[in-house]
Specification:
The complex is a heterodimer of chains A (about 220) and B (about 850). Chain A has 6 helices and 6 strands, in the order βαββαβααβαβα. With about 220 residues, chain A is α/β, with parallel strands linked by helices. Chain A has one domain: P-loop containing nucleotide triphosphate hydrolases (Rossmann fold), CATH 3.40.50.300. By secondary structure, chain B is of the alpha+beta class. Chain B has 38 helices and 10 strands. Chain B is globular. Chain B starts with about 40 loop residues before the first strand and ends in a 7-residue tail after the last helix. Chains A and B meet through strand 2, strand 3 and helix 3 of A and helix 12, helix 22, helix 28, helix 30 and helix 34 of B.
Chain lengths: ~220, ~850
């Protein structure tokens, strides 16, 4: 059987460090010069999880909620979702709820209750007196949402980044395995697939092509 | 060896410079103030040097800076070894004797610590623009080593410091470097020269395969280098125990990167690659002549040398040119360029160097087995290989194209035809010619002769009225662009954007401008210094959004680089208090309670943020949306920090772009849908491919369209592109033709190699900073003209048909069913044009 591909979506308010975390993890580097992400991009990294070599595909999207209506194309088939906030910004923490809800609506996983999330409190390298969200507060929230694993990270100083994404990989792999159990035998719409071996065949939910002209896609008011 | 003291808590490094530029993320690192001063009596001994090591501040080869990489021993009570990079220009300034020292050390084959022939040098002084650096080895955390591969001609080494900084990446141009072009001392050949392939032992003897490897092997004498098993390109310098544990877990897997790395750079017996993973013997024969390309430098060079040098002494560079030429012919002639490239006989020597997944596609005869690849491919197994291959094919094709153009330039008569020729490789022209026999349009652009002050002033009379038609002036801006040097753009842009009336006198313009200035300040005063507005929750939220983005927009532009010096809090007179209170409610960023940890700001960033906030009061529906700061920052730079001009230019720019930022994204959806329809008409094959790959949503063009290619070109080129777009010379939506031009020039790669939506997205995202602006603009123009022709042709044929049916309607009346069917059939062969597509022909704004 081929190598496993795990799709991971990284979400959170703009400026909390999604791109930085991803680059620190994959490229082992940090820059103050990352620009706001426009559209979407991803990086891939091969990791060992329980003696299996898997490829993680980490998706980085724009942090402004206005662009989230486009997210559906990227969220489908995700195996894990990483929620990121800035420990120095209470607001970025308070929006985690809506990021989580939004993801569950758009990705529509089979078993939303047990879909794996991982929460990262980023930028812990900043002086302590700037911190606005305590570890306790974050952990309480994570527990209330079904014991979401929580890591405090610094993309700048490469603190806990490796460990956090190792957990992401592990939970994503587990999710992937469960999805496959649910799916056997896979239901593939052969009429739409000619080569029959595409990535998306692994999902029961064959992603519908986005109707660009439809007015049906949701729009989200701002949170204010 | 390497027992240097690194216990001091402050980082003991002397970073001479690390400047930054728009292209690469070279972080500016301020000189730590608590640095122990280096005394005059400190002696710096040059122990190793290598020439032609480049720093690339931008993606453009013309900006590359050549220099020497050196290992320097600071001879003090406890000696420190420093890794340094010194640009040639700095050495030049010091005269030939200093230069000679570096050359001498480079030439030295054997090296000896106690050599009495000590070469002492001065380390150059700090200079922000020179990129020079010297850092103690103890401050280096890791090296990212990328040996030469098929896709990059030169190997490189990136240097990460313990404090998290990254130094400019060093690129080893071995084909120019002295130590690699020296005639190698004759060594006994075990084999007869004619035997092919030679035994692998030969490889081991030839020493280090590229400059970076050479440097690494020398570094090993001063520090412990550990190659990470997690990431094969990562080398840790004097790693901690924790790092050693983390990075030595052996992974047994067929890792393509590892394999290519092993093949290209670690043929030595002391290779860190475990024995079972050593490369298969590289098949090339020993060169007869000392040939700069034959033994060292990139894999492609080396591979190409083999068939020729084994039979004759033909210089391999000739072979390379021939190959590149044939590549370029192929790209022009066929649509399966890359496939043909790789089955080309000259390319065969490259094949062994391809990563395993790619190589497995080539059968014994050197032919591609695409079908089997797709079958075997399955779950993402070869995904990375496909993107790799597409990217590589593109680079080869581009290199071929460049060399072809260089030749064309050498022959003046040929140069004029090169653009037209180029255009003929686009898929659309086959379609155009096959369906309607239309001539291929030509581009009118002339970017090498931009509008200068003289020409501009000639267009206007004494009183400021234009002497030339407005359309004429816009056409010239479209064709030539505006001179980048000086401040002409500051004058011209407000006209092109529509801030100033073209058809008016000086005094009329001044009057209108005074009104606009007044209006700007009225708008700004609605929030500036008004606490109850400034701190209103919705404004607070807007401020936060704006601030976060402005702090990370174009920070490499000089205006935005320097951080603010913190204002002194010494005296507090009544006036000072008032001033502070005003500042509290006028400066967007510093006093926000919940901004999180962001990059530092400065006065220009604050002002940029102020302009964007004021725009919220001018255009109340939109709100700040990500991407707006990208559109505004270049205006601010070109307007030379003039707040009012920037604001009104931004208003006009947004007038064009507003639809992209609507809350429901309807504008972006419409634009992408129009682009989709345009592709369907202009390149049905590409359309069908995108359909198959779930790519019809065209999300890989999202960034291009949303911010008008701001992120795809270097800053200076963005300015050139935007002024062309603003002329609306052909179409109000010329940006879509630019998008089409980019897609068309990569259609072969996309059709051939990219079979999944995410692969196309990755490929397109990585085109950023590799697209040639003027070629693309010329192609976009030609595509527009072709589109217009096509529309006219379709309309003409439809009209003819109607005429035909109406004139024969009497006769056909009774045999309606069959004839109707026929009429419909002939309609199907002609593409139908949507309203969106017809709108593309509109120019001029309401």
């Amino acid at each position: 059987m081929g190598r496993v591909l795990l799709k991971v979506i990284i979400l959170g308010d703009s400026g909390v460090g999604k791109t930085s975390l991803m680059n620190q993890y994959v490229n082992k580097r940090f820059s103050n010069q990352y620009k706001a992400t426009i559209g979407a991009d991803f990086l891939t990294k091969e990791v060992m999880v329980d003696d299996r070599l898997v490829t993680m595909q980490l998706w980085d999207t724009a942090g402004q909620e206005r662009f989230q209506s486009l997210g559906v194309a990227f969220y489908r088939g995700a195996d894990c979702c990483v929620l990121v906030y800035d420990v120095n910004s209470a607001k970025s923490f308070e929006t985690l709820d809506s990021w989580r809800d939004e993801f569950l609506i758009q990705a529509s996983p089979h078993d939303p209750e047990n879909f794996p999330f991982v929460v990262l409190g980023n930028k812990i390298d900043v002086e302590e007196n700037k911190r606005q969200v305590t570890q306790k507060r974050a952990m309480t929230w994570c527990q209330s949402k079904g014991n979401i694993p929580y890591f405090e990270t610094s993309a700048k100083e490469a603190i806990n980044v490796e460990q956090a994404f190792q957990t992401v990989a592990k939970n994503a792999l587990q999710q992937e395995a469960e999805e496959q159990l649910l799916e056997s035998p896979p239901i593939v719409n052969l009429s739409q697939r000619t080569n029959g071996t595409s990535l998306s065949d692994r999902y029961v939910d064959y992603p519908d092509p986005i109707q660009l002209d439809s007015e049906s896609s949701q729009s989200y008011g701002c949170n204010c | 060896m390497g027992e240097t003291d690194c216990s001091s808590s402050s980082l003991d490094y002397n970073l001479l410079t690390a400047s930054s530029d728009s292209m690469v993320e070279i972080k500016r690192t301020d000189l730590p103030s608590d640095l122990p001063p280096y005394h005059d009596e400190d002696r710096y001994r040059l122990v190793y040097s290598k020439s032609k090591v480049y720093v690339n501040p931008t993606a453009y080869a013309r900006d590359n800076i050549p220099g020497f990489v050196a290992l320097v021993k600071r001879e003090a009570a406890n000696a420190t070894y420093l890794l340094a990079w010194i640009p040639e220009s700095l050495l030049n300034e010091r005269g030939s004797s200093e230069w000679d020292k570096f050359v001498k050390i480079e030439e030295k084959v054997a090296w000896d610590e106690e050599d009495e022939d000590v070469v002492l040098i001065d380390l150059p002084t700090q200079r922000p623009e020179s990129y020079a650096f010297s850092v103690p080895l103890t401050s280096i955390y890791s090296l990212i080593v990328n040996p030469p591969t098929l896709s990059s001609w030169y190997g490189s080494i990136g240097i990460n410091l313990i404090n998290g900084d990254t130094l400019p990446t060093l690129h080893f141009h071995d084909d120019e470097s002295h130590s690699f072009t020296l005639p190698t001392p004759p060594r006994p050949l075990v084999n007869n020269v004619s035997s092919y392939p030679p035994p692998p032992t030969h490889v081991a003897k030839s020493g280090n395969s590229w400059g970076g490897e050479d440097l690494l092997s020398r570094l090993r004498s001063y520090a412990h280098l550990l190659r990470s098993t997690l990431q094969p390109t990562l080398f840790l310098v004097d790693p901690s125990r924790a790092d050693i544990e983390a990075h030595t877990t052996q992974i047994f897997a067929d890792d393509a990167v590892d394999d290519i790395l092993a093949q290209s750079s670690y043929p030595n017996s002391d290779s860190p690659v475990p024995a079972h993973r050593r490369p298969r013997p590289i098949t090339f024969s020993p060169p007869l002549t000392p040939n700069p390309y034959s033994q060292h430098s990139s894999v492609l060079h080396r591979s190409l040398a083999s068939p020729t040098s084994s039979s004759s002494a033909q210089p391999s560079s000739q072979a390379r040119i021939a190959l590149l030429q044939s590549f370029s012919n192929i790209t022009r002639a066929t649509r399966h360029a890359a496939q043909n490239i790789l089955s080309h006989p000259l390319a065969k020597p490259i094949l062994p160097h391809l990563p395993d997944p790619v190589r497995s596609l080539v059968n014994a005869n050197g032919e591609w087995e695409w079908g089997s690849w797709v079958e075997k491919g399955g779950v993402g197994e070869f995904e990375s290989a496909r993107v790799y291959l597409a990217r590589w094919a593109r680079i080869v094709a581009e290199e071929g194209e460049r060399s072809r153009r260089r030749e064309a330039q050498a022959l003046p008569s040929a140069s004029s035809s090169s653009l037209a020729e180029e255009a003929s490789s686009l898929g659309i022209f086959e379609l155009l010619q096959s369906t309607s026999n239309l001539p291929t349009p030509k581009s009118s652009r002339d970017p090498t002769h931009p509008i200068d002050e003289k020409m501009w002033s000639k267009w206007f009379a004494e009183d400021g009225r234009p002497k030339v038609r407005v359309e004429e002036m816009k056409r010239e801006v479209f064709r030539r662009g505006v001179k980048a040097e000086g401040k002409l753009r500051q004058t011209v842009w407000p006209f092109v954007l529509g801030v100033f009336e073209w058809d008016a006198t000086h005094s009329e313009r001044e009057k209108l401008w005074a009104e606009k200035r007044k209006l700007y300040h009225e708008l700004k005063d609605q929030w500036c210094g008004v606490p109850e507005v400034f701190d209103r929750p919705d404004i607070l939220e807007e401020r936060h959004r704006i601030d976060v983005d402005c702090r990370r927009t174009d920070r490499t532009q000089p205006l935005f680089t320097t951080p603010t010096t913190t204002p002194s809090l010494s005296k507090t007179s009544a006036m000072e208090d008032e001033k502070k209170a005003f500042q509290r409610y006028s400066t967007i960023s510093p006093n926000m309670s919940d901004i999180g940890a962001q990059s530092p700001t400065n006065e220009h960033i604050d002002r940029l943020a102020g302009i964007l906030l004021t725009y919220n009061f001018y255009e109340k529906e939109l709100g700040y949306v990500q991407g707006m700061s990208d559109l505004c920052a270049p205006l601010y730079v070109v307007m030379d920090a003039d707040e009012e001009l920037t604001f009104w230019c931004f208003v006009e720019f947004m007038h064009r772009m507003k639809q992209n930022f609507l809350r429901d994204q309807s504008g972006m959806k419409k634009q992408l849908l129009t682009l989709q329809q345009l592709i369907a008409v202009m390149d049905p094959e590409l359309y069908r491919h995108l359909e198959k790959t779930d790519g019809l949503n065209l999300f890989f063009c999202f960034r291009w369209v949303l911010i008008a290619f701001k992120r795809e070109f270097p800053f200076d080129e963005v300015l050139r592109l935007w002024e062309v777009l603003w002329t609306d010379y052909y179409s109000n939506h010329f940006v879509l033709f630019i998008a089409l031009a980019v897609l068309e020039s990569h259609r072969d790669m996309i059709l051939r190699y990219l079979v999944e939506f995410d692969e196309i997205l990755k490929y397109c995202n990585e085109l950023s900073m590799t697209i040639e602006l003027d070629t693309t603009l010329a192609q976009a123009e030609v595509l527009f003209l072709s589109f217009a022709q096509l529309v006219a042709d379709i309309d003409r044929r439809k009209a003819e048909e109607q005429l035909l049916t109406s004139s024969t309607s009497g006769l056909r009346h009774r045999t309606s069913t069959t004839s109707n069917g026929k009429t419909r059939d002939s309609n199907i062969s002609m593409p139908t044009l949507s309203e969106n597509l017809r709108e593309l022909l509109n120019t001029g704004r309401p």
